[in-house]
Structure formats: structure tokens, C-alpha cells
Write a structure and sequence with these properties.
Nucleotidyltransferase, domain 5; 2 domains; six-stranded mixed beta sheet; 403 residues; alpha/beta; eight-stranded mixed beta sheet; globular
């Protein structure tokens, strides 16, 4: 069987994550990051066959030039002609997209229409799509949406208690994000627990610089912590998560903040960084907490308490809990946070295995509790693989339809 290579891209406003994935073997052949795009010292850092290298780019290099440089790199490595499709992560699909789709002019226009719901994310995703259409003009392009997995959430869970007109006319509702990660975790948990996906009830906690939690019932998302934007929900690296919405008005009316300053504060200056006044990096927070840094310890306490509250509340739509799953950079690697959170959830009867909890770090994963009843698992996520598999499925299906 021939390889099915997919070039996966995840565009940010000044960065571009990429990976070349064999969707059959599930192996990443090439992976890396183009960063500081538009700045004075942009670069591409990549890993190929175990070797890490860095390419310095010209000052003010933008996404198109960075992708052109990636094409040159792929040509030099003899990989370009083996690529079957391009898969794009698109953060917000609104209600228009309930699953991944082949990109054409109409789809691109619809993605642009919902960009107002994710002004920090979708415009960058669109830049990446257009740049790849120029660079890989003969290859099919596929959009995989963060929000698609959450389109199964019922109306009573996704609607805000606002005038209904705001939803019916402007689409203001809970959408949720990290959908590819939560979907992947559900499929892997199904295998590990030997429970059919259609019968699986889990709580998936994707914890990283961005963090979200999802209740998955019978294999489908029924509630999730992120909302209209990725700002709602858990405490994150630099995002505040849930707060009293009147705080925004207070900052503007009483303290003289502008709307732009409030947006920046809530998204980029809050969370672990804001509480600790130290860093948004959980590793730095944990190291300093161990050394007695009061702000770092407080940041950990708030992060874990908020997470434990969400976990407990998400049993409401499930009725039965098979497992709590930790994933993402923090969820996979911080045995400290996992232990703190499970200790707050005594109502579930979790009995932590300290050795298994430590061993589960750095990509190992596994079960970290010994009790009967609901289990706690660590499962490394692989959003890029989900994107690659969807890209191959859609392009293969499209080819079959033409025959």
C-alpha cells in the first residue's frame, strides 16, 4: 500500500506550525514551527529523521514567504512529490461546518464570514490556506475545524442566557474548541477501556497554554468549557477563563481602560501569568512554587480548583463516568497538577498510583488510578494525526466520486 502523506498546517497570527504525516503508519516524518513572522528575526525550526535544524528567514518574512521556504525545504528533502493533500486547522467553523470539508472558493468565503467570531484566529488560518493554494496549487486542501466535534452539544447547553435574538441573528452561543483533540482522546480511550465509542462516557481535560474540558457521552460532545471564543472556561496560561462579565465594564468605566486594553488583559495578561506575576509556563510555575513562591503556589491552587469544579459539574450531563482523561502539554506532563486535581475529587473515589502518575509523563500515558469505578487516564493527544486522517479520507472519497 502506498504512503498517504499529508502536509498539516496550523497558522497563527505570527507563527505557523507544520507537520508531514504518514496517515497509514501515523508517523510524523517532518515537524516544526515557523515563528516571529513579520518580525525582525523570523525563523523555521524543524525536526527531520530525529535531527533538529533551524533556518533563519529574512526580516519581515510573512506567511506566504515562510510557506515558500517550506516548499523549498520539502523539495530539498525529496518529499514534495509524495504529498497527497494539505490539511489545515481552522479554529472556528461557526454553525456552518459540522465536519471537515474540502476547501473551494465557497468554503473559503464561508470561513471568512465566521471570522468575526474568532478574530484572533480565523484570519491567520485563512492566510495559511491562501498561501498553500499558491504554493501547492495542484493538491487538494482540507479544512478541519476545532468547533466541529462540539456541534452535537444540545441547545440547552450551548445557549447563553441572553436575548434569543443575539443567537438567532448573530450566532452568539457556546461553540467550544480543541475539538480535534477531544475527538482523538475519545477514540483512544475507547480502545484502552475496551468500551465501544458509541457507549463511552468520559470527561476529557485538554490542558495546555490554552485549556478546555469536554463532557463526552456515548462518544459525542455534550458540553464543553470554551464558549463563543477560546477565552471562557478554565484558567489558562494567559487567559482568565470564567469571570464576572461586569469586570470588563468596571475596567473601562472606572479605571479608564480602553476596550482594546481589556481584550489584551483578559487574553494575554491573565491566567497563570497574571496570578503568579511570574510566567505563563506551568513548568516555571511549579518549580517556583516548590521553592516557596507565593504567587506561583496560588496560581497552581486556582488552576487546579477551577479544573476540579468543572470536572465534577460535567458528570451532570453524563449520568455515568467511565474515565477522566488528562491530555495536552500540562495534562500529559504535570504529575503534580494531576495529583492535586484528583485529591480534590474524593467524591469519585479516585485512588492515585504515584508511580504510574510519574511514569505517565512525556508521551508514555496510561492509567494512573487503582480504584474500581471511574478511572483516571493520561492519553497523549495527536491533533495533527486527526487532521491528516480527515484530509486523506475526504480526498480519497472525492477521487472515488469522480471515477
Amino acid at each position: 500500500m502506498s504512503n498517504k502523506l499529508v502536509f498539516v498546517l496550523n497558522c497563527g497570527s505570527s507563527s505557523l506550525k507544520f507537520a508531514l504525516i504518514d496517515s497509514l503508519t501515523q508517523q510524523q516524518i517532518l515537524s516544526g514551527l515557523a515563528d516571529s513572522l513579520g518580525g525582525q528575526a523570523p525563523f523555521i525550526r524543524f525536526k527531520y529523521r530525529g535531527n533538529k535544524q533551524t533556518i533563519d528567514l529574512h526580516s519581515n518574512t510573512e506567511h506566504q514567504q515562510a510557506i515558500d521556504s517550506l516548499v523549498t525545504l520539502l523539495n530539498q528533502l525529496g518529499l514534495t512529490n509524495q504529498i497527497n493533500a494539505i490539511g489545515h486547522r481552522v479554529v472556528h467553523g461557526g454553525e456552518k461546518f459540522t465536519q471537515s470539508v474540502l476547501i473551494d472558493s465557497q468554503v473559503l468565503a464561508q470561513i471568512e464570514q465566521v471570522s468575526q467570531l474568532a478574530p484572533l484566529h480565523n484570519p491567520a488560518n485563512i492566510i495559511g490556506i491562501k498561501a498553500c493554494q499558491l504554493a501547492f496549487d495542484t493538491l487538494p486542501q482540507v479544512a478541519v475545524f476545532d468547533t466541529a466535534f462540539h456541534q452535537s452539544i444540545p441547545k440547552h447547553a450551548f445557549l447563553y442566557a441572553l436575548p434569543h435574538q443575539l443567537y438567532s441573528e448573530h450566532g452568539i452561543r457556546r461553540y467550544g474548541f480543541h475539538g480535534t483533540s477531544h475527538f482523538f482522546i475519545a477514540t483512544q480511550a475507547s480502545k484502552l477501556l475496551n468500551i465501544e465509542l458509541e457507549q463511552l462516557n468520559i470527561i476529557s481535560a485538554h490542558l495546555g497554554n490554552g485549556a478546555s474540558i469536554t463532557a463526552i457521552k456515548n462518544g459525542k460532545s455534550v458540553d464543553t468549557s470554551m464558549g463563543l471564543t477560546p477565552l471562557e472556561g478554565l484558567v489558562m496560561g494567559t487567559r482568565c477563563g470564567d469571570i464576572d462579565p461586569a469586570i470588563s465594564g468596571y475596567l473601562i468605566d472606572q479605571l479608564g481602560y480602553s476596550q482594546a486594553q481589556v481584550t489584551a488583559l483578559l487574553n494575554k495578561e491573565s491566567g497563570l501569568l497574571g496570578i503568579s506575576e511570574l510566567s505563563n509556563d506551568c513548568r516555571v510555575i511549579e518549580e517556583n512554587a516548590q521553592q516557596g513562591h507565593v504567587g506561583a503556589q496560588l496560581a497552581l491552587d486556582i488552576f487546579c480548583y477551577r479544573l476540579a469544579k468543572y470536572i465534577a459539574s460535567y458528570t451532570v450531563p453524563l449520568g455515568r463516568l467511565d474515565a477522566l482523561v488528562f491530555t495536552g502539554g500540562i495534562g500529559e506532563n504535570s504529575d503534580t497538577i494531576r495529583a492535586k486535581v484528583l485529591a480534590m475529587l474524593t467524591i469519585f473515589g479516585f485512588e492515585l498510583d504515584p508511580t504510574a502518575n510519574t511514569t505517565a509523563r512525556f508521551g508514555q500515558g496510561g492509567q494512573i488510578t487503582t480504584n474500581q469505578g471511574p478511572k483516571a487516564l493520561v492519553i497523549p493527544t495527536d491533533e495533527e494525526l486527526v487532521i491528516a486522517q480527515d484530509a486523506i479520507r475526504l480526498t480519497t472519497s472525492a477521487s472515488s466520486d469522480k471515477e
